[in-house]
Specification:
hydrolase, eight-stranded mixed beta sheet, alpha/beta, Amidohydro-rel, 8-oxoguanine deaminase, MTA/SAH_deaminase
Length: 451
Amino acid sequence: MPDYLLKGCAAVVTGNEVLRDVDLLTSGPAIKAIGPDLAPGDAEVIEATGWFVYPGLVNTHHHFFQCFVRNRADLDWTKLSVIEWLDRIYPVFSRLTEDCFYHSSVTALAELAKHGCTTAYDHQYCFPRHAGTRIVDRQFEAAEKIGIRFHAGRGTNTLPKSEGSTIPDEMLETTDGFLADCERLLDTFHDAGKFSMRQVSVAPCQPVNGYRETFVESMRLARDRGAILHTHVGEGESEVIRARHGMRTVDYLEEMGFCGPDTFYAHCWELTEAELARMAASGTGVSHCPEPVYLVGAEVTSIPAMQALGVRIGLGCDGAASNDNSNLMHCLHSAYMLQCLVANTRSHPVPDPAAFLRYGTSGGASLLGRGDIGQLAPGMAADLFAIDSRRMDYVGTRHDPESLIPRVGIGMATDMTMANGRIVWRDGEFPGLDEAQMAAEAEATLATIDF
């Protein structure tokens, strides 16, 4: 793998400050130096005049397989509650094959990389029996193909429909079977070392579709192995949990210990400020997924309250069935604009636009337990993306690179994305890969499913 010198960057947004008119030098998987007039040595020089360079984005919640059910009028959840939507869409999910999981993962990862994402977390909870036992393995294969960091959230659903879940029998797993596969995946793929490209977390899907023992045993395994915990919380299910267990979801999980600095929840748009305060006290993080908020028509997640209370915040695309794209850069813009929309109804002010860039970079790194990504500095991973600011799109905006993406938005792919010191997207191409062929293979696999 060659080293690179990005020569003459207009701005490098480190995550802590903006450095103007500097070079950035990589060495293997790491950043070696940032500063003016760096000597290239043996590094390949890339002319970066006009470029704004940012830390690679960290996507903390997704469901890659849902790329195969997006943009479908028959699954429009704007006309349904979340629970009604799950009842309708889970039978569709149960028809997917192993090849579907692979090609949908390639599809999602490619779109993420194009738009500046260098680390992706996928919450894979769909395990139809006919699809076999190597679904997550195929996801790691897809991530290696595209070249970005992959954190696999091995999910599950264990509560049968007869006991109140939304899960078809074809997708139901036992707690013991789930834990056994988590252990297998941890043994096979999990690398906790610096600049790791592969990690595994334990991530039962959601409390409404799992037994209590599933969550308790997930904690035991994850903490024994030093893995992150994750689940869905606060997306319309809290009163269902109260009816079953006599307490809302945050209380239910906190009472059993499924919380803490090694734990983060997805969504959390229906939580009270008191619940958020308890999460801040325990160190539990939140992956905010802004774009599904448009579709579900529910209240806007209170990011200002989370920020004020000290809750750790990252950003996620969420699955394409409730977002329809895998563009985390677009989510930065959506997240900021949604908060501005409801600002006059909130007691806390909207955080500055630059804060939303941090949620999508260092905030995401914190949720995933990573101290080696999310910022640009010597010794950190060479995970970055570049935007050529010399376009009409950016006239009048170039004085504030930190706010550009959240406030103005970026309507195109990056000019370059680099992960772990390797260029994975540049000048409209995936180096060494044929995008048209990848798309055709994915479409052909999609065509084999009878929806």
